[in-house]
Design brief:
The chain is about 20% helix and about 30% strand. It is of the alpha/beta class.
């Protein structure tokens, strides 16, 4: 029987050499469909013959060291002829997801086996032993493997289908290259922090940053990972807050790790909103005393005349893993999204939320998307993340008719959690400069990430769910003349609206709530700023160091128990009530 399976598998790959499936099975067996773009090809040329391959095409959309994406005239160039070209290692059509994101399968397939199954058994079941180049365990907590196969790119989707249909795996999905939607960097002004009516806006419609800064401007122990296209490492308004970054597109950290390529300014804009330094030379971020970890997962290319992000599921997975696992980031800010759901990305986000911050969980924040749709984009659609929509300076959901006059709209719908300023945002950009009109849910997302960092600055012992509850339950119910906020199933943290979520993020109310939040345990902490920890009943304290002349107050209606290491360094103060 085993020989029959192997023979059939080999026959399958031979027969399907010019075919390309338009779907694969996601988690739970749901079919994820694509449109096959027969006018766009993804080409891997032989290393010494790339110039010959480039000469075949009139319209080169991307010329990458490892591949080419080109527009073809199907009447003149047939895919089968390209596949037979001796200068080409492999070629396939691009795929388009329902939201317009373009994707192409690579040689890799992510596989998560069902409990009790092994990756070797799964591979054997489909008869793939002779075409497997390597198998790597890439997510030990979720037991996800990446199998690299020596088969045509056209066959990768079919391989994923056949792996899933064995019944031995929870999912099997291609490791896609993705061309994400443009991230809408159209230049900012800090009405979002203090709205005095700029641009014809409504005075007071802002995130209450100034009031929050009366309590805290952040703690240097709190880290925000800006997972993006890189952050300019020498910008004078950012460099003092930057920690060692990581470039997932090359797999390197240190040195230039986390910096952008020339012209890629989006990540620098987002970093400025979240945590630009309060140094009087430019702008100020929401959490100016917190640290930034630049994580590069993408870079900009132009295709069909449009600005796109080039990334891959492997880069995304590696970037998220670095943020929560390697550098233990407290908040992961993600101003990107779109394309088919990826079980591998979803699993890595779950790891961050579950295991980050030494088990308390890292807060993961995502932009809802800028397509003016009644559903937020993936991964913002996940219940494990905070999905952030954008508002205008007049407190409206950003739409085609909002007061700012910009021709785009913020996504909304069931999975929307919160909104934040998203038009005409002043922030940092490349070459040490500033821009005055950055926009999109890309701009809204780091506002919320910065507020989360302030929350954790006053109470670092909060769990990820507690931080989320605070941000959502303290949101401002802006523009009740336009939006009705009501008790809604599935939204437990107060009244909610389909277009505004729980409302506009409120830094001051959130920080106040965090400062008074009660906990049962306060463990494994270094306290370097004045901090009050309130116990819900009894309070257990363990492995704590108070340093930097800080004052730590421990308050509890019951007993305060100190176990293990507890150090109060010279000049610092411990007070127990």
């Amino acid at each position: 029987m085993k020989k029959v399976i192997i023979a059939f598998g080999i026959l399958f790959f031979c027969l399907s050499v010019f075919a390309q499936s338009d779907f694969f099975y996601g988690t739970g067996g749901k079919r994820i469909h694509f449109k096959i773009r027969k006018d766009l090809v993804f080409v891997k040329a032989k290393q010494d013959a790339k110039e010959n391959v480039l000469s075949l095409f009139k319209n080169i959309e991307i010329n990458n060291p490892e591949f080419i994406i080109a527009t073809i005239d199907t009447a003149q160039i047939q895919l089968k002829n390209l596949q037979r070209n001796q200068d080409i290692n492999d070629v396939t059509y691009m795929l388009e997801y329902s939201d317009g994101v373009l994707q192409a399968p690579t040689e890799g397939v992510f596989v998560k086996c069902r409990e009790g199954q092994t990756i070797d058994r799964v591979i054997s079941k489909v008869g793939l032993q002779k075409v497997v180049k390597s198998i790597r365990l890439i997510n030990s907590k979720q037991q996800i493997f990446r199998a690299e196969l020596n088969v045509s790119l056209n066959d990768i989707m079919d391989v994923a289908i056949r792996l899933y249909e064995t019944g031995l795996v929870e999912f099997a999905e291609p490791d896609f290259m993705r061309l994400l939607h443009p991230a809408n960097p159209y230049f900012p002004n800090q009405w979002g922090l203090k709205n005095t009516g700029q641009y014809g806006g409504i005075a007071g419609c802002d995130i209450k940053a100034e009031s929050a800064w009366g309590i805290t401007k952040g703690d240097g122990n709190i880290k925000i990972a800006v997972i993006d296209e890189g952050v300019e490492l020498t910008h004078p308004d950012l460099s003092g807050n930057l920690l060692t970054g990581f470039d997932a597109t090359t797999g390197s950290s240190g040195g230039s790790g986390g910096g952008p390529q020339a012209g890629d300014y989006h990540g620098t804009c987002c970093a400025g909103i979240a945590a630009a330094i309060d140094n009087s030379i430019g702008i100020i971020g929401v959490a100016p005393n917190c640290k930034i970890i630049p994580v590069r997962i993408a870079y900009i290319i132009y295709i069909e005349g449009k600005r796109r992000w080039l990334t891959s599921d492997s880069w995304i997975k590696s970037g998220i893993e670095y943020a929560w696992s390697t550098v233990n980031a407290d908040v992961l800010s993600n101003s990107w999204g779109g394309g088919a759901p990826s079980s591998t990305t979803t699993s890595e986000i779950q790891n961050a939320v579950t295991y980050g911050r030494d088990g308390k969980g890292s807060l993961v924040v995502f932009a809802a998307g800028n397509e003016n749709l009644g559903a937020v984009a993936y991964p913002a659609s996940l219940s494990t993340v905070i999905a952030v929509g954008a508002i205008s300076q007049c407190g409206e959901r950003k739409s085609l008719s909002s007061c700012d006059g910009e021709e785009w709209g913020s996504n909304y719908g069931t999975n929307l959690d919160i909104v934040a300023p998203g038009v005409k945002i002043y922030t940092t950009t490349l070459n040490g400069n500033y821009i005055s009109d950055f926009n999109g849910t890309s701009a809204a997302c780091p506002h919320v990430a910065g507020v989360a960092a302030l929350v954790l600055s006053v109470n670092p012992n909060l769990t990820v769910q507690q931080v989320r509850n605070i941000i959502e339950s303290t949101a401002q119910k802006v523009r009740p003349d336009l939006y009705t906020y009501s008790t809604t199933s599935g939204h437990p943290n107060g009244t909610w609206n389909n277009q505004m979520g729980y409302g506009l993020v409120d830094a001051y109310a959130a920080v106040q709530a965090a400062a008074s939040s009660c906990v049962d345990n306060f463990t494994n902490q270094t306290v370097s700023t004045n901090t009050t920890v309130v116990g819900c009943d009894d309070l257990t304290v363990q492995n704590v160091t108070v340093t930097n002349n800080a004052q730590l107050k421990l308050e509890a209606p019951g007993e305060v128990t100190i176990n293990g290491l507890f150090e109060v360094q010279s000049g610092s103060v411990l007070e127990i009530k």
